[in-house]
């Protein structure tokens, strides 16, 4: 399993007409290679340099974001069975919703999915169905859901009801993750079905206005498209993978002094900032490799539902949206730092598959490996056998008859040929039996030698242990004199001989 870093993108929106009328100017510089230089308002302060995977300058189009952000690769992985997520975040009015769904009201009006004004989500739908159509060997089932987190309450945007009754977020022991209970899902067989899901959800989403943004998102939204792929791996075996792609549009962080929020709007802003603060703290904990302690996913509904995307078994793409003007400098720097921390988070993506299908696929791969090994052994044995048979037949017989000439032989010749082959087969069987007997004898001899070696090694260890415990003292030689010979004897033997001599004297 390979750890993958979160892919980090940066998109800079153009200066608006309102900002231009107030004399705002660009404070960002783009030297290339994914770098952004943020200049300060005073020359005495040092400029800050940030680096990302891709930087989309104000002139970048929606098609550029699709082509170069890595979303296409994300969709391909979702089709293969991975869990993928695309984030958009930043301060309010920085272009997050525009990046994902296009200008305000575009989707709600039912504009054609092929309109050039559409954002990342609709373009991803088009590309997803292109990928599906390019795989006729697989059967796909798409299911979509759309929810929002408004004032720390989870609302189903496809089935909100008259009172917008909140749904409960539960923990699943089976999947080891959080899920939304009773969330409505829609089967999507065509592109228009997915587009209808997005259109319905955008109509029901909570949107408000304040001093900084006339179409401010007052909730976080998560659009989830689940992709089930049934692939026929064999004549009788079908494996299913379960991938998904999440499109997350985070509500923008707000400075209430600038938005002039009051009453309900102020409550919404406080809840938005609180959930974003928890998300930022989770990202800070995950990106700090030195101290990986408790990650407070349970502190907000947003982090519960994004826990798997941040540091689980999925692949995540984060697009930070910023405003380039002086009045937004502090929020821009915070977003740039936020994005830099998120770049350090690692996840370990895996293909999600049914346990039964995973077992079948594993066994199928093992069978294929055994078949390959069997074929290799058969080919090697075939070469060796052909050589032995040819050599054996050359020594026994010199007759080599081609198969097409068998019909030209007489009955007596055929009988002689069959008899000859039967004799050769009998001789080969006898030779094989003899070889097997020799092999068995060698194995038995090898086993006896191994036992003998073990016995000798044990005896040698015993001798070494005795030598280690009590070293042998060499015997002092004594001389037993006689007129004819000089004899070196052991002291004990000499003493015994002396006693014997004394007794005889």
TrEMBL record:
Q: Where does ATP bind?
A: 90-97
Q: What are the boundaries of the region Disordered?
A: 478-505
User: Where are stretches of biased composition, namely Polar residues?
Assistant: 479-493
Q: What GO terms fall under cellular component here?
A: microtubule; microtubule associated complex
Q: Does the keyword Nucleotide-binding apply?
A: yes
Q: Spell out the subcellular localization from the entry.
A: Cytoplasm, Cytoskeleton
Give residue ranges for domain Kinesin motor.
5-345
Q: Name one Pfam family in it.
A: Kinesin
Whether ATP-binding counts among this entry's keywords is yes
> Residue spans with biased composition (Low complexity)?
494-505
Top-level taxon in the UniProt lineage: Eukaryota
TM annotation in the entry:
none
Q: Which residues form a coiled coil?
A: 439-466
Listed GO MF terms: ATP binding; microtubule binding; microtubule motor activity
Keyword entries, A-Z: ATP-binding, Coiled coil, Cytoplasm, Cytoskeleton, Microtubule, Motor protein, Nucleotide-binding
The Gene Ontology biological process annotation of the record reads: microtubule-based movement; mitotic spindle organization; spindle elongation
PANTHER family attached to this UniProt entry:
CHROMOSOME-ASSOCIATED KINESIN KIF4A-RELATED (PTHR47969), KINESIN-LIKE PROTEIN (PTHR47969:SF33)
What does the similarity note say? Belongs to the TRAFAC class myosin-kinesin ATPase superfamily. Kinesin family.
Please identify the protein, giving its name as recorded: Kinesin-like protein
Native source organism of the sequence: Arctia plantaginis
């Amino acid at each position: 399993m390979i750890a993958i870093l979160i892919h980090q993108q940066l998109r800079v929106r153009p200066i608006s007409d309102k900002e231009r009328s107030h004399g705002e100017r660009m404070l960002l510089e783009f030297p290339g290679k994914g770098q952004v230089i943020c200049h300060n308002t005073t020359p005495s302060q040092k400029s800050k340099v940030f680096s990302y995977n891709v930087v989309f300058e104000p002139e970048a189009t929606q098609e550029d974001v699709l082509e170069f952000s890595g979303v296409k690769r994300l969709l391909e992985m979702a089709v293969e069975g991975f869990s993928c997520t695309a984030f958009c975040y930043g301060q309010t009015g920085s272009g997050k919703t525009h990046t994902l769904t296009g200008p305000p009201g575009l989707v709600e009006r039912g504009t054609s999915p092929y309109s050039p004004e559409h954002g990342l989500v609709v373009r991803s739908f088009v590309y997803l169905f292109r990928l599906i159509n390019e795989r006729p060997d697989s059967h796909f089932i798409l299911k979509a859901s759309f929810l929002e987190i408004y004032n720390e309450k989870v609302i189903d945007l496809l089935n909100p009801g008259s009172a917008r009754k909140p749904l409960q977020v539960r923990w699943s022991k089976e999947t080891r993750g959080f899920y939304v209970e009773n969330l409505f899902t829609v089967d999507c067989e065509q592109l228009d079905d997915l587009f209808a899901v997005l259109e319905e959800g955008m109509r029901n989403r909570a949107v408000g206005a304040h001093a900084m943004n006339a179409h401010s998102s007052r909730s976080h939204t998560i659009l989830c498209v689940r992709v089930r792929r049934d692939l026929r791996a064999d004549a009788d075996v079908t494996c299913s993978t379960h991938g998904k792609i999440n499109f997350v549009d985070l509500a923008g962080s707000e400075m209430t002094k600038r938005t002039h929020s009051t009453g309900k709007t102020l409550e919404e802003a406080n809840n938005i900032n609180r959930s974003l603060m928890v998300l930022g703290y989770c990202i800070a904990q995950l990106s700090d490799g030195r101290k990986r302690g408790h990650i407070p996913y349970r502190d907000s509904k947003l982090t519960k539902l994004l826990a798997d995307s941040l540091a689980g078994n999925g692949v995540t793409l984060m697009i930070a949206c910023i405003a380039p003007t002086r009045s937004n400098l502090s929020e821009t720097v915070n977003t740039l730092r936020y994005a830099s921390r998120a770049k350090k988070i690692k996840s370990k993506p895996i293909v999600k598959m049914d346990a039964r299908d995973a077992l079948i696929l594993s066994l199928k791969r093992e069978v294929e490996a055994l078949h390959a090994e069997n074929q290799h052994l058969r080919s090697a044995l075939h070469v060796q056998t052909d050589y032995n048979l040819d050599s054996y037949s050359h020594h026994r017989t010199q007759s080599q008859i081609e198969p097409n000439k068998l019909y030209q032989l007489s009955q007596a010749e055929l009988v002689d040929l069959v008899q000859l082959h039967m004799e050769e087969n009998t001789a080969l069987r006898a030779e094989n039996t003899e070889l097997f007997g020799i092999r068995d004898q060698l194995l038995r001899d090898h086993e006896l030698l191994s036992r003998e070696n073990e016995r000798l090694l044990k005896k040698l260890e015993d001798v070494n242990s005795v030598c280690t415990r009590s070293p042998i003292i060499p015997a002092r030689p004594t001389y037993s004199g006689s007129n004819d010979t000089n004899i070196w004897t052991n002291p004990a033997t000499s003493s015994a001989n002396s006693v014997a001599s004394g007794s005889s004297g």
